[in-house]
UniProtKB/TrEMBL annotation:
<feature type="domain" description="Aldehyde dehydrogenase">
    <location>
        <begin position="27"/>
        <end position="457"/>
    </location>
</feature>
<dbReference type="InterPro" id="IPR015590">
    <property type="entry name" value="Aldehyde_DH_dom"/>
</dbReference>
<dbReference type="InterPro" id="IPR002539">
    <property type="entry name" value="MaoC-like_dom"/>
</dbReference>
<protein>
    <submittedName>
        <fullName>Phenylacetic acid degradation bifunctional protein PaaZ</fullName>
    </submittedName>
</protein>
<dbReference type="InterPro" id="IPR016162">
    <property type="entry name" value="Ald_DH_N"/>
</dbReference>
<dbReference type="Pfam" id="PF01575">
    <property type="entry name" value="MaoC_dehydratas"/>
</dbReference>
<dbReference type="InterPro" id="IPR016161">
    <property type="entry name" value="Ald_DH/histidinol_DH"/>
</dbReference>
<feature type="domain" description="MaoC-like">
    <location>
        <begin position="562"/>
        <end position="655"/>
    </location>
</feature>
<dbReference type="InterPro" id="IPR011966">
    <property type="entry name" value="PaaN-DH"/>
</dbReference>
<dbReference type="InterPro" id="IPR016163">
    <property type="entry name" value="Ald_DH_C"/>
</dbReference>
<dbReference type="Pfam" id="PF00171">
    <property type="entry name" value="Aldedh"/>
</dbReference>
<comment type="similarity">
    <text>Belongs to the enoyl-CoA hydratase/isomerase family.</text>
</comment>
<comment type="similarity">
    <text>Belongs to the aldehyde dehydrogenase family.</text>
</comment>
<dbReference type="InterPro" id="IPR029069">
    <property type="entry name" value="HotDog_dom_sf"/>
</dbReference>
<keyword id="KW-0560">Oxidoreductase</keyword>
<dbReference type="GO" id="GO:0016620">
    <property type="term" value="F:oxidoreductase activity, acting on the aldehyde or oxo group of donors, NAD or NADP as acceptor"/>
</dbReference>
């Protein structure tokens, strides 16, 4: 490892006070307010001062509950999702300015990309999933309807509606951009206003992002507020309507969880905290294999990315007995070849300092505790890297080895920096037990190309982790990496990791909503959900395929048939399609099948005929059939039986950015005895006008 400096002076200082944005205006503390100094991580020069002294947090909460709730409540899920996409596009155009500011936090260009581009990427991903996986309405239906009466007059349905309060998001210092945007995005789509409280050491970067967000004019009034400085008595003003999403230390999380408004008042509380994440090297991943190389590369990346200041960083290397020295040598060699420590603004630097000198001191103290607990340094040193600015927060990567893999220290002490420990396991059961000793983690990597090893390890450790990355020669290059949560999948973990979830696609939106069971008649369920329920009122007359999306209403219905099915029809379909399964072609074999009375019609023949029975053939508003869903064949149809179809507009989803929308039609086939033959949903694209 080498160290470079950009030679900048540390004599400069700043009287800038990082403002808060509350009640839809900027706020700064009055003269004489006690303010905390924030320093450049590399040089120790003052960047800004931060204080929230005098800020009326009760008014901030009230503004979110009133103005924010009202402005977001006028929008649908899709409309909110589109605003997020526009916001992502806008921030993408100003990110170079954010990169420059991010360097002051100690972040390299790559670190800043993970934070800034990663945060913007969350906006795009959740915007896309919100439009594809949620209705263009304000109610989200959870699961199928539950019939609660014999005659269908009384049913139940689970729905999600937004919580009526505010999402208070208390973020850590290591990801001042991603940490805010990954929490803001799902709350916004849900329709819940956000109060952001960033960590003070890097909150000036969060403030810069908020300033750009406001300059864009994209977000509605009251939907975003920013507290720069201490959160002080914020939770005192919250109740069961509100949510707190915390990222930080387990100690702080325990303090917040113990607040009376959380324990007794019903404030929803989620936390993502300390995590002694592991990386398990499979017994088949010997030196020279692609899995071994991928494992070593992952370890070096996770120890040095963000200078190891990631809740997902690898803290414990769990390797087969006798393999420790090989791994240490490989990690050391790659570290020396790939890692250059210094001011991230200097050319060639690949690892910057920690976020603050206070953080540096905490990391070094934790390393000392690990040594006292049985570890010995096998790579790196407690000394400052050669050439490091003494005013900066530099720590060299440190790898410790423990002779006793059961040592409590290695499974209990996290040095939140470029520090990891290596231990050995005797067999897979031992590896599983060691991984579990972390007490619950955000992520573990398993490096193996052996399917049985992968299955054994994953089934053994999955319940102790929020995410497991399978790393082998196939995905080594395409993998997003051990330490990179993706917005599509959950981020969080049990036990020590906080016991909560963030992200996970639409799951993260639902975290900001209340699931409620509603019960009533089909007409009432239809009115509440906006989706037609069997037994609710219908409208006939004009064929619904003649109606534009603007004219169409849920409950619009058409019927077709009957049509008699003959043996010749079945035989012809078998010949035309090549589907000569014996139930359609061999009378003796079909009769021996316990599910059929003899030869029966192909299910797809019936579905095809149904389309012919309900379609309106002339050109009109219906543009295309985009799919079928939930197809079920219920009653076999024999030669001589007849079928009829009932088609009802079930759900109408206008697309905000197109001249058409999607209509989901409820399709039911009956036979001549009024028995249900098949049920399914037909999806069509329909012009708005």
């Amino acid at each position: 490892m080498t160290l470079l400096s950009n030679g900048t002076s540390t004599d400069t200082s700043s009287d800038t006070v990082v403002p808060s944005y509350v009640l839809d205006s900027w706020w700064t503390p009055g003269d004489g307010a006690a303010a905390q100094r924030v320093l450049d991580a590399s040089t120790g020069a003052e960047v800004a001062r931060v204080s929230s002294e005098g800020l009326d947090l009760a008014a901030v909460v009230d503004h979110a509950r009133t103005v924010g709730q009202a402005s977001l409540g006028r929008l649908t899920f899709h409309q909110r999702a589109i605003l997020l996409k526009k916001l992502g596009q806008y921030l993408g155009g100003v990110k170079e300015e954010l990169y420059e500011l991010s360097a002051r936090t100690g972040a390299t260009r790559y670190d800043s990309m993970v934070d800034i581009d990663g945060g913007i990427g969350v906006l795009f991903t959740l915007s896309s999933k919100g439009r594809r996986e949620m209705p263009n309405s304000q109610v989200y239906i959870d699961g199928d309807v539950e019939g609660l009466s014999r005659d269908g007059s009384f049913s139940g349905q689970h729905i999600y509606t937004r919580i009526p309060g505010v999402a208070c998001q208390i973020n850590a210092f290591n990801f001042p951009v991603w940490g805010m945007l990954e929490k803001l995005a799902p709350a916004f789509i849900a329709g819940v206003p956000t109060i952001v409280k960033p960590a003070t050491p890097t909150g000036y970067l969060t403030e810069a992002v908020v300033r750009h967000i406001l300059a864009s004019g994209i977000l509605p009034a009251g939907s975003l507020q920013l507290i720069s400085g201490s959160a002080r008595d914020l939770i005192d003003h919250l109740d069961y309507r509100d949510l707190v999403a915390f990222t930080g230390s387990a100690g702080t999380a325990r303090t917040l969880k113990a607040h009376p408004n959380v324990v007794e008042g019903g404030v929803r509380f989620t936390s993502e905290t300390d995590s002694l994440n592991a990386a398990i090297l499979g017994p088949d991943a010997t030196a020279g294999t692609a899995e071994f190389d991928a494992y070593v590369a992952s370890v070096v990346t996770e120890m040095t990315s963000k200078a190891g200041q990631k809740c997902t960083s690898i803290r414990r290397l769990i390797v087969p007995a006798g393999r420790r020295d090989q791994v240490v040598a490989a990690v050391s060699e790659r570290m020396a070849r790939r890692v250059t420590i210094g001011d991230p603004r200097a050319e060639g630097v690949t690892m910057g300092p920690l976020a603050s000198t206070g953080q540096r001191d905490e990391v070094l103290a934790s390393v000392a505790r690990l040594i006292d607990g049985g570890g010995r340094i096998v790579m790196g040193s407690l000394d400052a890297p050669a050439g490091a600015d003494p005013e900066g927060a530099f720590v060299a990567p440190i790898l410790l080895a423990f002779h006793d893999p059961e040592s409590p220290a290695v499974h209990e002490i996290e040095a939140f920096g470029p520090v990891a420990s290596i231990i050995e396991y005797t067999d897979l059961d031992h590896a599983i037990a060691l991984a579990a000793r972390g007490g619950g983690s955000l992520v573990t990597t398993v490096a193996t190309h052996h399917p049985d090893v992968a299955r054994t390890l994953v089934l053994g450790i999955a319940a102790h982790h929020g995410r497991v990355l399978m790393l082998d020669r196939v995905d080594a290059r395409s993998s997003t990496g051990h330490g990179s949560p993706v917005p599509h999948l959950v981020h969080g973990g049990p036990g020590r990791a906080g016991g909560s979830e963030e992200l996970g696609g639409i799951r993260s939106v639902l975290h900001h909503m209340q699931r409620t069971a509603i019960q009533g008649s089909p007409d009432m369920l239809t009115a509440i959900t906006g989706e037609w329920h069997t037994g609710a009122a219908v409208r006939t007359g004009i064929h619904p395929f003649r109606k534009s999306l603007t004219e169409l209403r849920v409950g619009d219905q058409t019927q077709g048939g009957p049509r008699v099915v003959t043996l010749d029809d079945i035989t012809a379909f078998a010949e035309a399609t090549g589907d000569k399964f014996y139930a359609h072609t061999d009378a003796e074999a079909a009769a021996a099948n316990p599910f059929f009375p003899g030869i029966v019609a192909h299910g797809y023949l019936l579905v095809s005929w149904a389309a012919g029975l309900f379609v309106d053939a002339a050109p009109g508003p219906v543009l295309a059939n985009s799919g079928l869903e939930k197809l079920r064949f219920v009653t076999p149809v024999s030669p001589g039986d007849s079928i009829r179809v009932t088609l009802t507009a079930k759900r109408i989803t206008p697309r905000e950015t197109d001249e058409y929308g999607e209509v989901c039609w409820d399709a039911v086939l009956h036979n001549q005895n009024d028995e249900v033959v098949a049920t399914y949903d037909v999806l069509t694209l329909v012009a708005k006008e």
